[in-house]
Amino acid sequence: MTTSVVLGVSGGIAAYKACELLRRFTESGHDVTVVPTAAALEFVGAPTWAALSGKPVATDVWTGVHAVPHVRIGKGADVVVVAPATADVLARAAHGLADDLLTNTLLTARCPVVFAPAMHTEMWEHPATQANVATLRARGAVVIEPAEGRLTGADTGKGRLPEPAEIFELVLGVLGRGAARGPAQDLAGRTVVVSAGGTREYLDPVRFLGNRSSGLQGYALARAAAARGAQVTLVSANVVLPDPAGVSVVHVETTEQLRGAVLAATASADAVVMAAAPADFRPTAVSDAKIKKADDGSAPAIELVQNPDILAEISHDRAREGAVIVGFAAETGDATGSVLDLGRAKLARKGCDLLVVNDVSGGAVFGSADNEAVILGTDGAAVDVPRGSKTALAHVIWDEVARRFAE
């Protein structure tokens, strides 16, 4: 079934990036109608949008008026994405103004609406813009937090349009939820922390102990939470992926750095999902110089010490009453028990509320786009999630978290 996407483009310098977003939608089989504002055409002309979408482009309600485009486009959409969304468009959408085709479309749409703001930092932080964003979110719209970085001219700060690839992934997550999956913004007003990736423990300036975690599941969790309205902090350990759209990212390397960043973020968090794979051990000493090979072929003896257990620490010493703590367990099963036996024992030992148990026998899961798991709860729940995308698993995890919020 073809998905109908309306791509609204407003008049900011980041309008050129919307061409890349449009290309991603069309190349993945979506039917895209581009609705630019008149100001947007000052940055990217109508022929470009028409050529990339394969459809004519209009900004006003009078073009093709016999087809009633100001009603038809919005009513027929499966999702409306406005990227970039300027302060002006956010204000007009929040106040229900309808003076062009895009704002008419926003009023008639009965599908998920995603705004990807882009503007100077001062404009984003202005109380009027923040009030407009709060109004739109209260109505169920997804308003992505802008990225930080280089803006127009020499200015830098918060207000940069997130990367098109990340906007695309977030929109796919919104579409994947579907109208029957409950309130699209069930995490609105919640602050969540997600950790991702694998930590490194250095032996010398060149070598380290690490693991195979790619960070894909943690990044999927961060995107899904942002799509559901949460304010998300992602603590990322050695992940080579672009920062998710609308997410505040803290980059770390070692387990101690991961611990410090997680503890700092959990003080105000409603939920913490520890999807990262911290190294269990670290060397007792780190060499200042590269460790050389011995002429006699002998190998150096490396003494290890156990790292702190971050999940157990934040579970047993809760920074916020009522916070939901989620852990991950990558198990293979052994003589002491099956994967689920070991998972249940770990859930009791760690003290978290939910434990996502992965069977990683043979290296499964690591670096894969798919995942399957059983989500165990301290209330006896055991939710079996069949193999599917890591985004799908992420949404099931947030479903379980949201259910505990409701309770």
Approximately how much helix is present in the residues?
25-40%
How far do the termini sit from each other?
A: 36 Å
Annotated CATH topology of the largest domain: Rossmann fold
Gross morphology is: elongated
Q: Please count the beta strands (DSSP E, at least 2 residues each).
A: 19
Query: Could you state the CATH homologous superfamily of the largest domain?
Result: CoaB-like
- The total domain count is 2
List the total number of helices.
Answer: 13
Strand line-up in the sheet with most strands: 12-11-8-13-16-17-18-19
Percentage beta strand = 15-25%
For the CA atoms, what is the radius of gyration? 24 Å
Per CATH, the class of the largest domain reads Alpha Beta
As residue ranges, the low-confidence spans are none
Structural class: alpha/beta
The CATH architecture assignment of the largest domain turns out to be 3-Layer(aba) Sandwich
- Main sheet: strands, sense, barrel: 8 strands, mixed
Which oligomeric form is depicted?
single chain
Organism: Nocardioides cavernae
Binding site for CTP: 280, 290, 308-311, 328, 346, 350
Keywords: Decarboxylase, Flavoprotein, FMN, Ligase, Lyase, Magnesium, Metal-binding, Multifunctional enzyme
Region (Phosphopantothenoylcysteine decarboxylase): 1-191
